[in-house]
Amino acid sequence: MNKTLFILINTFLILSFYCNPYKLPDEKTVDINQTAFAHYTAGVELYNEGNYYEAMTEANQAIALNQRFAQFYQLQGDIFRAQGNNTAALKAYDQAVNLRSNFTDVYHSMGQIYFIEKRFEDALRAFKRVIANDPSNHEMSLEIARCYIELNELEVAYNDLADYRRLKLVMNEDLVPEYYKLLGIVYYKFGRFKDAIPQFEKYIAFYPDNTNALFLLGTCYYEQKEFERGLKCFNKLISKDNTIGKWYLYRGIYFYNKNDYPDAESQLRHALNLDHSLNKAHYFLGKIYEAQGKVQAALDEFREYRKSMRETVEANELEKTIFQLENLEQKKEIPD
């Protein structure tokens, strides 16, 4: 290679380098918030699928990247709640509302947990926060009324239900079935059984197999001396589950009021075989034996009933009955 050619080649290479310099790829910046939200989205999908373990992994990764996003803690709380860990769920929900004080969905979830745990005052506070942040959520008045019912503040519960009804009528919206059930319970606890009956009937028209409503309706019928209608409720309950002693107890009460003592005794004994805690059965057995002149058997049942809370009969009335039967039994033992 001659000298001139060498110079030309070197010149070409130098010019090529400076005209087309080699560049490293541009660095791609990672958006941490976007990555965190991607984990959150994946966690929501897994949660909806019931895959709670992997959903929690995604939720935790989202929180690790961004500890200031309230919905991440909501998801974490929802997962804990689905797993039955209410304590951890409440802790996560607390984190969520600390970051977002108007997070109504989370307050609602907290209230539901508190209600299940019978922390009714805490449940009330949570439900009231929902309404404070979302006054249009009229259904929350039902949740609040339910808490007041449990706290036996029946007048307040009644007023909340009345407010709910008024607002729904103003807005020309239908009342939800739960309203009728709650109003029925308030009337029931007030001892207004005649008023409670149509409320439970309206609720059962929507939910004909609701056990609690059927039971309360049946007892209301009994209180109104409509034993045939009440028996239909208890027969339906037995057809749904024939292992519940309480249903047979009320069948026994039906036969007792019809003076059908053999059938009444059979039903009451069966009730006690299924559930030994049904002390009311001992009272009615005592009344049956008393009516049949079986003094000692009646005494045994009344004494057994006396050990309980005496749900049906006033204590002094029961003691009077036992005293009279004991005197009668003593007279039988004294020889002529």
Write up this protein:
- The chain is an all-alpha fold and 336 residues long.
- It is 76% helix and 0% strand.
- The protein has 18 helices and no strands.
- The termini are far apart.
- Residues 12-29 have low confidence and may be disordered.
Mean pLDDT: 88
Helix content: over 70%
N-to-C SSE series? Answer: HHHHHHHHHHHHHHHHHH
From the helix content, strand content and strand pairing, which structural class follows? Answer: mainly alpha
Supply the number of helical segments.
Answer: 18
Q: Termini separation (Å)?
A: 155 Å
Low-confidence stretches: 12-29
Rg over alpha carbons: 35 Å
Q: How many β strands by DSSP? A: 0
The coarse silhouette is elongated
Fraction of residues in β-strands: under 5%
The biggest beta sheet reads: none
